[in-house]
Amino acid sequence: MYNPVLFAAVLSIAVAQIGKVLFLRFKRSKWDISLLWSASGMPSSHAAAVSSATMMTGLTEGFSSPLFALASIFSLLVIYDAMGVRRAVGDQAELLNYLMELREHTGKHSLVERVGHTPLQVIAGIVLGCLIALALFYV
User: Fold this and answer.
1) Contact (Cβ atoms closer than 8 angstroms) between residue 39 and residue 121
2) N or C: which end of the chain has fewer CB within 10 A?
3) From CA 61, how far away is CA 75, in angstroms rounded?
4) How many domains is the chain partitioned into structurally?
5) Preceding peptide of 119 cis, ω within 30°
6) Is the pTM of this model over 0.70?
7) Structural domain boundaries enclosing 93
8) Tens digit of each residue's pLDDT (9 = 90 or more) over 75-121
9) Burial (0-12, 13-18, 19+ Cβ within 10 Å), 134
10) Which of 41-45, 94-98, 127-131 has the lowest mean pLDDT?
11) Nearest Cα to Cα of residue 117 among 81, 85, 75, 83
């Protein structure tokens, strides 16, 4: 059974994650396949997924429907979290890793520093997600 909202969201995640690898290749001329599983980077797959799902919901159910309103609020919360809270967590992890190095901490466990997104990464994800939803709906 085909669900256009789910399909648009999953496709947006896949395209965004592959886009992260290609963006780094273009920007720094190096391949890093581990970005396929990264929680941060350009573009934001979080923003792409929720934007695509919201856009497809609006296209299929109507932009004045309660379902579109719910999807919009959900998207705003996810985007705020990706750009705000998760980015702050990454900044704190960077500081804590530095402090552990000062204490000559040699354990294998360091905190993940790249967990959030910059505003530009989020905007790129939103644009990507909306474009994917529009392309799937109209093509």
Assistant:
1) no
2) N
3) 16
4) 1
5) no
6) yes
7) 4-138
8) 999 998 887 776 777 777 777 777 777 666 555 566 555 666 788 88
9) middle
10) 94-98
11) 83
